[in-house]
Amino acid sequence: AEAAGADGISLINTLLGMAVDARTRRPKLARVVGGYSGPAVKPVALRMVWQVAQAVSVPVLGMGGISTGAVEFMLAGATAVAVGTANFVNPTATVDVIDGIIDYCESQGVKDVNELIGALQC
User: Fold this and answer.
1) Which residues are CB-contacts of 16 (< 8 A; sequence separation ≥ 6)?
2) How far apart are CA 113 and CA 79, in angstroms?
3) CB of 12 within 8 A of CB of 66?
């Protein structure tokens, strides 16, 4: 994407999932498969953000399972984060995530949130 001129890269959205009704032996979803999102995809999203951020020089937008712990995405290399599915469960999820970033920075003595970007120590 970067080589083709992208100004940034966002990842991830949903993963392809499936649900089966064992009683009827039929798929639970009309299209058989569909998007799987929420907290369960977070470890996959973190890994992908970390890998991509190391490979590109454009900003990386991290998303996927963020309801708390957005700082983790920034430490993995995300320049910014997006909150999606969590908003369906908690209408203040985005504000809660922002407050969590602020609280983390204050508790860790971080003066500029940009200090977090890619600061994961492996």
Assistant:
1) 33, 34, 35, 36
2) 10
3) no
Judged by phi (left if over 0) then psi (alpha if -120 to 50, else beta), residue 46 lies in alpha
Mean pLDDT value across residues 12-38: 95
Buried b (16+ CB within 10 A) or exposed e, 50-64: bebbeebeebbebbb
Spatial neighbors of 5 by CB under 8 A, at least 6 apart, are none
Q: Assess contact for 10 and 82: CB atoms under 8 A.
A: yes
The C-alpha atoms of residue 65 and residue 14 are separated, in whole angstroms, by: 9
Indicate the pTM of the whole model: 0.89
Q: pLDDT tens digits for 43-87?
A: 999 999 999 999 999 999 999 999 888 999 999 999 999 999 999
